[in-house]
Design a protein that fits this description.
seven-stranded mixed sheet; four-stranded mixed sheet; globular; alpha/beta; 231 residues; Rossmann fold
């Protein structure tokens, strides 16, 4: 039997009761949950503006489920497909989904799996006090985390919105989603490290996307909401 140590925080937010499982109140994201708040409220409101009701939300880099929990609670998705490779985050994520009754819309098939441009393996590197800042280091170890191309999971499935937060691997993840994006032309909400900003701008031009919103919370990166030009 696995036992997860922590506490459950219940809050009423915008007229809905929300429950957060909190393991570490010092964690960058969980410290908001510990006081009954969502993390990155401004970013969530951008997603809300552009997410199509009844659509399929793909959460790449789900972490403890902050964004999926918001979408599932308020935005009426048909389905949420979650990608999160890091086991400590998965443990909290699955509890958050269960506590809020979101299992019927949550596809957990790819929990334990990360995305990249080629099938590979990686080890998780977790900064102290920042589970959401976990980054992946390539490795050949057979017991390491599994990375796949997003197209291998999604190209033949409906995708109405892509949220991508992968701590510097965003260009590799986009490369692995080429067929999916070409087929479904979903809105993208993506965190871009500063070092990848020029490459992302070039990507939007090649793929026929335009930047509709930008929001910077941290000095090292910026969030972009990108739409297909035909939208």
């Amino acid at each position: 039997m696995n036992r997860q140590h922590g506490s459950v925080v219940t809050a009423t937010i915008s007229g809905r009761e929300v429950r957060f499982f909190v393991e570490d109140e010092r964690d960058v994201i969980q410290q908001y949950h510990a006081v009954g708040q969502f993390y990155e409220v401004e970013e969530l409101r951008i997603i809300e503006e552009f997410f199509p009701r009844g659509g399929v939300f793909v959460d790449i880099g789900s972490n403890v489920g902050n964004h999926s929990l918001y979408v599932g609670t308020y935005l009426h998705p048909r389905q949420i497909i979650l990608f999160e490779p890091n086991p400590p985050a998965i443990a909290i994520l699955t509890l958050n989904l269960a506590l809020n009754g979101l299992q019927p819309v949550a596809d957990l098939t790819y929990l334990g799996t990360g995305l990249a441009d080629v099938p590979s393996r990686a080890q998780a590197r977790v900064p102290e006090g920042n589970l959401g800042g976990t980054w992946l280091a390539p490795t050949q170890e057979e017991d390491a985390l599994v990375l796949i191309r997003g197209d291998d999971a999604l190209a033949h499935r409906r995708v109405d919105f892509l949220k991508i937060d992968v701590e510097g691997m965003e260009m590799q993840v986009l490369a692995g989603l080429q067929r999916t994006i070409a087929t479904w032309r979903p809105p993208l909400f993506i965190e871009i490290e500063n070092r990848n900003a020029e490459a992302f701008q070039s990507w939007t031009e090649r793929q026929g996307y335009r930047i509709e919103r930008r929001f910077r919370r941290y000095e090292a990166n910026e969030n972009y909401l990108a739409l297909p030009i035909e939208a």
